[in-house]
Structure formats: structure tokens, C-alpha cells
Amino acid sequence: MEQDRSSQSRPPHVLVFPLPIQGHINSMIKLAELLAIAGFKLTFLNSHHNHERLVKFNNIAAHFERYSGFQFKTITDGLPLDHPRSGNWFLDMFEDTMEPKMKESLREVLVNSSPPVDCIIADGFLGFALDVAKELGIPIIFFRTSSPCCFWVYYSIPDIIQAGELPINGSEDMDRLITTVPGMETYLRCRDLPTFCRKLDIEDSIMKLVVKQTRKSLQADALILNTAEELDGPILSQIRTKCSRVYAVGPLHAQLNTRINAKHGESYDHFSNTLWEVDKSCMFWLNKQPNRSVIYVSFGSITSTSREQLVELWYGLLNSKTKFLLVVRPNSVIGKDGEGEDVVMELMEKSKDRGYIVNWAPQEAVLNHPAIGGFFTHNGWNSTLESVVAGVPMICWPQFADQHVNCRVVSEVWKIGLDMKDVCDSKIVEKMVNDVMVDRKEEFAKSASEIAKRKIRRRSRWYNGGRFT
Ligand code: UDX
């Protein structure tokens, strides 16, 4: 059932559709805003649940009303209203519970859209959008929120298995190199593969789902990645051997900031698109700290830590010679009998003169504050890019998905951080913080600042008269 999309007297209508998770909404709403600035009519399709939170914690109406063609639409994410949607929930619920309802709702939005949608930009994890687009005859581009390196590793998993490099035998050396991912033969180790690759079962359902979605991403009309040629050129070349239309349009937050600053001036208060209430008090605390003296510690929007891990981290930070700003998201500490949250209160009490704890920080602003000298991160791709652009070296403590590969790239390829993968010990935390913030401070600051400088060439023409160039 095709709609009439022949009228080109109006701006092209693009529908942007993210996976309903903070890390995915963040970059896709930025892409949507860039397209709105370029003159497209834009529909941003969000889940009811996340849209409510976007409205609650951000001044959405005031921000987006400047784009006359920008609208939000909402659909179900397929989960019951009372589902907590915290922890790593979506991988377990995705195929059976979320996908069928989201697919049906997407179809309904597209069929009823006026003017008709000319192009869908869907999250690469939402492979079902390709089936709907084909059925309705609408061009579709997939956008992957994870790194190109991770995309390429996911794509290569069947080849790694075929070559006998997976499964990993539990007792063997996790530092063994994986030789079957083209372009990464010299640095990708077993321990840098996504965590689901550590299972002995090569039929693991999550691994199969991720491979399926990744391979499907290359069947779309084009693939967009949130990176720059200058950062990930060699791996982008590898991906282009499988799909000729691969566009590196990022880092999107930097692209958007450049355009908004040009239009409204540097002091303009950027839209934060956050799903939690931002505690800006930490900025006042940072204002009182010397330049490059504070390490920022935050693990994104999904990762949880155990009570024991948080205590190890905290003692490591406390025993280091550095002040810290720590984010502990609500419900992100897993303890016995609800003990998780208590430990945060105890830490707050003990760390008054050494650190500052918030539930959710204005991360981009924090990373760009002169007092910040390092970022203790889980290496989610948004956090990694935000740190790269701000020129802040990292201590990498990845937890799952693309984070392990990102961590390896940061520490071994770009050499702008230290790898703390698979360890959580206060002595090691202390040593790494001292290395990045004190003992090897100048070395890391120099490499981080060099990579920040080459992060993005200004792109003035990635949209040209209704066509991507
Ligand atoms: C997830 C995956 O981990 C990530 O690798 C994938 O590419 C996208 O989805 P998440 O784990 O939340 O995302 O990490 P990340 O990609 O780093 O995104 C977190 C975002 O939340 C960042 O843009 C960060 O600026 C923001 N944030 C985080 C805040 O604004 N305040 C905070 O206190 C913490």
C-alpha cells in the first residue's frame, strides 16, 4: 500500500525512530534536530513512557517550537505501564514482547501520516522497521548508536565462530588475539568482545539477535554512523566493503553544538534531552575546584553496579590524590534487601571534602568544565564521544554490549585512556586515577587534546537539496 510521495514542492518528511533507551534517544534526537535545521519536515517517534519523561525533565516545547516542521509522535514500547524499565531490560523483552507491538504501531503511524513520510531513519536495532518500510514502499536508512568498531565486530561474529575462535574456552587466556575481524587483527582480544561472546553457547539468543539486527542494518538504503572519518576511518572502510552507502555524520553532539552556537551564540542553553532530573548543583561545586583537578565518574543510563563494586570504586577514589564527581543513578546499585541505596547515603556522608555525588549530571557541560581532568566511564558510545570531543582522557570500565570494544579502541588505538576491564579493586582504581590525574597527567592530556582537535572536519554539505551527499 504505497502513499503518494510525488509532491516535492514541500520539504522532504523524515521520520526518526529510536530504540526507547536514553543512550539511543540522545543521539537520534540530535540527528533529528540537525535535519530540522537543514529544512526537513521532521517527525520524532518516541515511546509514550520516554516522551513523558522528556517533557517532564526538559523544556521540549520551548526548544523545538523554533522548527516549524518538527513534531513529536508517540507509540507504545510494548511493555506494561508499571514495568520499571531499569537495568538491562530490553534485550530480554525485545523480540517477544516489544517488537510485535512497536511494529504494528509504526505501521499505523506511517499509513496515517500527512504529509506522507518520504524517508525513515530507524535505530539499527529496530530491524522490523525495514519490513514495514518495504511493505509501504518508503526508503529507509538505519542509524546505529553504537560505535563502528562494535558494529563491525557484531557483523563478524559468524566468521569468528566459523574460524573456531568462538566459543572462548573458560580457562583459556582472555588476552588471545581474535584474528578474523578484518582491520582489528592486531589489537582485538577475547576480552574485548561483547560479553555475550564469553558464553560457551554459540546459539545464545542475545548473540543471535544482535547478529541478526546488525546484518539487517546493511539491507537498508543506507547506514548512518555516529562518528567521524578522522576517528574511525579504517573500520568505516571495512564496513563499506559490505555496504557502499555508509555515512559518518558525527560526533552528532559536536555537529549540533557547532550549528546552534553559530546561530544563537556560545552562551545559549542547549537542550539536554534527558530522561532523569539533572542536578546542576555539581556545576557550582566544580566552579570552586582548580583546573583539571577533578575526575568525573559515571556509567551511563543502563549499567548497574553491585553494592560491593561501588564500595571498591569509592575507596579507590578516596585513596587517590584526586577529587571526584560521582553519578549514582536512582535504582542503579544492586544490594541485598534494598541495601543498595543506603550505601550511597553513607558514601555521601564520608566524602564531603573529597567528592560530590549526584543522581544525574549535565554530562556534556561537566566534561567541558575546566575543572575536569579525567572521566571514569563505562564507555557507552555517547559518553566516549563526549569525552573525545571535550579532550578528556578516560579510565575505562566497560560492562556490556559495545563498551568492551570501545574501551579497547580508547586505550590501545587512540591511546587516550587506561583499560580497567574485568577488574574492580580499590587499589587498581586508586593507581589508575593517580596515573591519569597526577603521574601521567601531561601525557594523557596531550593525547586527548590532539585527538579532540582532529575529531571533526566541518561538514557543510551532508544534506543537499533533498538528497544526502
Ligand atoms: C547505551 C550503550 O551503552 C551505548 O554504548 C550505546 O551506544 C547507546 O546505548 P548508555 O549505556 O546509557 O547507552 O551510555 P551512553 O551511550 O554513554 O549514553 C549515556 C548518555 O547519558 C550520554 O549522552 C550522557 O551524556 C548522558 N548522561 C549520563 C547524562 O546526561 N548525565 C549523567 O549523569 C549520565
UniProtKB/TrEMBL annotation:
Transferase as a keyword of this entry, yes or no, is yes
Q: What enzyme category does the UniProt record give?
A: transferase
**Which top-rank group of organisms is this from?**
Eukaryota
Q: Which reaction does it catalyse?
A: 7-deoxyloganetate + UDP-alpha-D-glucose = 7-deoxyloganate + UDP + H(+)
Q: Which GO terms describe its molecular function?
A: 7-deoxyloganetic acid glucosyltransferase activity; quercetin 3-O-glucosyltransferase activity; quercetin 7-O-glucosyltransferase activity
Q: Which keywords appear in this protein's UniProt record, sorted alphabetically?
A: Glycosyltransferase, Transferase
- InterPro entries from the UniProt entry: UDP_glucos_trans
| Known EC number | 2.4.1.323
Q: Which PANTHER family match?
A: GLUCOSYL/GLUCURONOSYL TRANSFERASES, GLYCOSYLTRANSFERASE
The Swiss-Prot or TrEMBL record describes its family as follows: Belongs to the UDP-glycosyltransferase family.
Name used for this protein in its record:
7-deoxyloganetic acid glucosyltransferase
Recorded source organism is: Gossypium raimondii (Peruvian cotton)
